[in-house]
Amino acid sequence: MAHPKLVAILECLKTAREEVEASFQRTFDQNFRLGNIDRTESLQEQKEVLRKATSTRGLSVEFHFEGFRVEIFLPDEAEVIPKWAENPDPTGKAKLATLAQELGILLFPPDWPLRESAARVVPAFTATELPEDSPGMLLPVNMGNRELPMLIRLLGEEATAYAPVTPQAPPRDQPASTEKLAASTAGVATPPPARTRGAGAHPVRARILPLLTRSLLKIKLPVEVILARTRKPLAEILQLAPGTIIQFNKSCDEPLELAVNGYVIARGEAVKVGDKFGLRILEMTLPPERYVVLSGRTSSRTEDARKVSTTK
């Protein structure tokens, strides 16, 4: 019998399958596909596959909850994980942090309070770190046109304290005692079963906000990098032609502006990412404050009287 927390993770994974695949693809810039989720097997059934997968370095994404932790380990077989992930620069650290944050939203139920998440490349597991006895599962994934086993395991006191309960059949050699027990309890009203806080007891409204959040994450907004701004008379704009040079009142050392949907949210400097252009964010820009000064009737009348006295 699988751990109930692993069952909940699998259900969230089936719901957010496309978002999880897109998150890995954005991070590593290569193809990533989840295999058949129904083929997921426990660690006790695949000990040899587990030992082979953990004998090399890999990507570890940890999620810290109250009383337990969840770790996702992706082995680096055939060097499918990029080299920059081992010693990432600020841009690489931001990519890994974004991956951990997105997976923290997609992979877990909304009533699990996530305290911390982090993604990093870790070395191979030692003999004492093999998680074959901890509750977990192996999920087939395809990354860089290569099939890999992705490890999902639970850690912590709450995870290891769980023990599946196996229902036991009543003994056959005690029919008389069974009849007496049934007769004695016939007149006692059976209390209604208590409503537990399991996966099926959550109201539908508790799932509305996460589903709307996932839909909002799919909306694409225009992201622009603004070099400089200036104002020119209409006559000069009409005279623009190939070869015309426009001068801006901005130094070459000043940072560029990053705008999302027309609103400036950050400033940064231009960087080269491979053969592409990029922007390293240096500071975030707060939106302009909108406020209205509210005054009482007494203060407003006093100011009106002052205005009248000054006009006289």
Automatic annotation (TrEMBL):
Family: Belongs to the FliN/MopA/SpaO family.
GO cellular component, one term: bacterial-type flagellum basal body
Gene3D superfamilies assigned: SpoA-like
Protein name as it appears in the record: Flagellar motor switch protein FliN
Signal peptide range in chain numbering: none
Membrane-topology descriptor: Peripheral membrane protein
Keywords: Cell membrane, Cell projection, Chemotaxis, Cilium, Flagellar rotation, Flagellum, Membrane
GO biological process terms on file: bacterial-type flagellum-dependent cell motility; chemotaxis
Keyword NADP: no
This protein's record includes keyword Kinase: no
